[in-house]
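Appendix C reproduces, verbatim, an entry submitted by the partner laboratory led by Prof. M.T., so that reviewers can inspect both the input and the predicted structure.
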Amino acid sequence: MSPGRPAHVRTSSEVLDDEQLVEELRRLLAEEDGFGELAARMALLADERRLRILFCLHAHPLIRSSDLAWAIGAHESTTSHALALLREAGWVHAVRTGRVVRYELASGFAHDLLHELGSGHLDDVGHPHHRAHDGHPGHDEHHGHDGPVGHHAHGGPSADDGSGRRTGA
């Protein structure tokens, strides 16, 4: 898609007058539900710290909140609060292994959106199924826009070197 070209164009050659167009749009909007919830969810992305956290989780899933805080240069309590907000809104979820809690993106939608925003993966993080999706090679099969899709394995966490810090990241 070229930058100057719209992604969607009318397929009908019929030219609607303004009143018809407005009525068509009103019908479409009336059929949709959840604008308030979606707006609240998207508003969380307007905070730089939360966006940095999401970029980190996209780049390398299954990271501890203390490591996220260290990576973004924030206090652990501030990072934990941001993660709680992101978890409540459905952007991330926690994966508990014994006493360790690690975080990852909660849906293919979040993952795809972060790709669109320019977020990449670290070298040792990849998609389990390498196939083209919407023109982006490497997107896996469970990326859709249906909300959370459960635990998806982008690659496991790096090994813990015993000091509480992960190796290999």
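The longest helix spans residues 18-31. Additional entries are available on request from the coordinating office.
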